[in-house]
Amino acid sequence: GKSVKKAAARTEPAALIVFDRVVASNPDFKKYWLLHSIEEPTIGESSFVVKRTKDGDSGMLHCSVLLPEADDVNIEKVGGPGKEFWVFGENYPNAATTRPDPCNERGEWRVEVTPKTAAEEDSFLTVMQVMDNTVASLPVQRIDGDKVVGAAVCGRVVMFRRDSGQLSESFSFEVPKSAGKKVKVLLTDLAEGAWTIKRNGKVFKADVTVTLEEGCIYFDATPGQYCVEVNM
Questions:
Q1: Confidence (pTM)
Q2: Which terminal Cβ of the chain has fewer Cβ within 10 Å, N or C?
Q3: Under 8 Å between Cβ of 169 and 193
C-alpha cells in the first residue's frame, strides 16, 4: 500500500500589515487611528491585544504599532459602561443596545492611536496578528530605508513608499538577519516599467517588469543591503 504523510499543521498567526498616510490642512487637526472591539483591549508598549473569551470564543488580535514611533505615540482604550459610543466627551446611545445580542457581537470598546507631536502629515504603520488566545504573537520589526518604510514578520518583508504617490526613482533598504535566513519580499508603490534589484552592490535581479495594475515586485531574498533601481 501507499504511505501517506500528514502535513504538519501550521501554527503561525495570520498577519495583516497596514500603512496609512494622513495629511491635514492644519497641523493642529489631531489624527486618530481606530480599531473597535467587543471585549476590553489590553494596552502594551507600542502594542495592544484584543481577546474573545465569552461563550467559548478563543480568538485574539495582537497589534504592533510601528509608526508613530514609541516616543511619539499615545495608545488609549475608550469604552465600557456609559462610554460604549463615546465621542469627544459625550456618549451617543445606540438603539442596538436594547436588542438581543445572542452572538455577542456588540461593540463596547475602541483603541485610539495618536501621535504626540502635531504635524501636517503623519504615518501609521501597524501589524495585526490573528490567532488563538493561547498562542504567542510573532516578533515584528520596522525596516527604515531610503524613501521607503516597512515591516518584517515571520520571514516576510513588505515595503511601502514613505509619502504618497508611486516610486519612480531608485531606493534602498536592508533585509536584516533578524528577518530570517530566507525571506519573501514585497515591494509596493512602484511605477510602471523595468527595474533592477541589486544585493550588496551586485545585480540580483535584472529587468524586472512592473505593470501599472500591480505596481509591485515580489521575490525571494536573503539578508543584505538592497538597492532597487529604475531602468533608464
A1: 0.89
A2: N
A3: no
